[in-house]
């Protein structure tokens, strides 16, 4: 990520159309958490070291693997796409999406439905003990790879140059492990023409230093784990107090936000959003009108 005006470096390294994209390896199905601290450490090791090595080792799809013919039934499409993700066949997963596009489906629809539903289904399979922790984490990584592959085309579609002056900072609440949904929110903001700064993780002091030095129109915070909800109000207060923009707007989203109505007012945010498209609409409503 560009490091502008000598500010703290905050990189966009990762990221369901929903902020809560339910393939959360910490608690992917939204059920009872499993040994949080040990799983968090294991996830960090797997995502940071093991998965990248395995992805390189198995970069080429199996000779027996083939992109299935695109089904017309949405459930069948999801099953086919999920099968490719679980098989580790990222290239065929991208080809599958391109076939959907050739049949008339837009990338926006693909992001908001197919990829989101796939992430949610991964979480359900984990909750039902039909997938291992490694399979869910690897599947989430492959979904990010698919979105990265599609990103230049997606973000270049319908880009509105008039909005290039708008600045957004999108990041998870400090301590949050889940970033797949945040990744897609960033994609939707970029597609709409915003200049986006993003991070998979950042401390509160780093965030406050950045907003103090650099103008942002919107800060978006993702909260997926319920244990972080109590921290959000204090984080938002510190961000507002430090911001060089007295008109700064704060959006919140994620599984924990979706599960509690009226959380924006309670936590001091300006709005909530359930997915990337809704997040952009809310931000532009707050800033541009």
Assigned CATH class of the largest domain: Alpha Beta
Distance between the termini: 29 Å
Query: What form results from the Cα inertia axes?
Result: globular
**CATH topology-level fold name of the largest domain:** Rossmann fold
Reported for the largest beta sheet, the result is:
5 strands, parallel
Strand content: 5-15%
Question: How would you name the CATH homologous superfamily of the largest domain?
Answer: Cobalamin-binding domain
Helix-strand category: alpha/beta
CATH architecture of the largest domain: 3-Layer(aba) Sandwich
How many separate helices?
A: 11
Unreliable stretches covering 5 or more consecutive residues: 1-18, 24-39, 49-65
Q: What this model shows, in words?
A:
The chain is of the alpha/beta class and 289 residues long. The chain has two domains: 4-15 and 160-288, Cobalamin-binding domain (Rossmann fold, 3-Layer(aba) Sandwich); 36-156, no CATH class. Helices cover 52% and strands 8% of the residues. The protein has a five-stranded parallel beta sheet. Helix 8 links the parallel strand 3 and strand 4. The two termini are 29 Å apart. 45% of the residues are buried.
At a glance:
The chain has 289 residues and is an alpha/beta fold. The protein has helices at residues 36-57, 74-86, 90-102, 107-127, 133-156, 180-191, 204-213, 229-242, 255-258, 263-267, 276-288; strands spanning 167-172, 195-198, 218-222, 249-253, 271-272. It has a five-stranded parallel sheet.
């Amino acid at each position: 990520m560009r490091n502008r005006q000598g500010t703290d470096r905050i990189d966009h390294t990762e990221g369901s159309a929903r902020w809560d994209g339910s393939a959360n390896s910490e608690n992917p199905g939204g059920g009872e958490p499993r040994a949080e601290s040990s799983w968090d450490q294991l996830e960090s090791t797997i995502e940071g070291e093991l998965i990248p090595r395995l992805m390189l080792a198995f970069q080429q799809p199996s000779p027996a693997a083939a992109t299935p013919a695109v089904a017309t039934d949405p459930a069948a499409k999801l099953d086919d796409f999920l099968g490719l993700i679980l098989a580790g066949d990222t290239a065929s997963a991208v080809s599958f999406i391109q076939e959907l596009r050739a049949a008339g489906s837009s990338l926006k629809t693909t992001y908001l439905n197919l990829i989101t539903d796939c992430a949610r289904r991964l979480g359900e399979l984990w909750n039902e003990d039909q997938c291992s922790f490694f399979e869910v984490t690897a599947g989430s990584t492959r979904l990010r790879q698919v979105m990265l592959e599609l990103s230049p085309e997606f973000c270049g579609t319908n880009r509105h140059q008039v909005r290039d002056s708008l600045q957004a900072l999108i990041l998870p609440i400090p301590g949050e492990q889940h970033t797949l949904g945040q990744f897609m929110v960033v994609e939707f903001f970029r597609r709409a023409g915003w200049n986006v700064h993003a991070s998979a993780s950042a401390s509160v002091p780093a965030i406050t230093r950045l907003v103090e030095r650099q103008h942002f129109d919107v800060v978006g915070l993702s909260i997926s784990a319920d244990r972080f909800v109590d921290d959000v109000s204090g984080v938002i207060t510190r961000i507002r107090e430090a911001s060089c923009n007295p008109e700064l707007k704060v959006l919140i989203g994620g599984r924990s936000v979706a599960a509690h109505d009226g959380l924006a007012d309670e936590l001091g945010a300006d709005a909530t959003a359930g997915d990337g498209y809704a997040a952009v609409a809310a931000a532009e409503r707050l800033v541009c009108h």
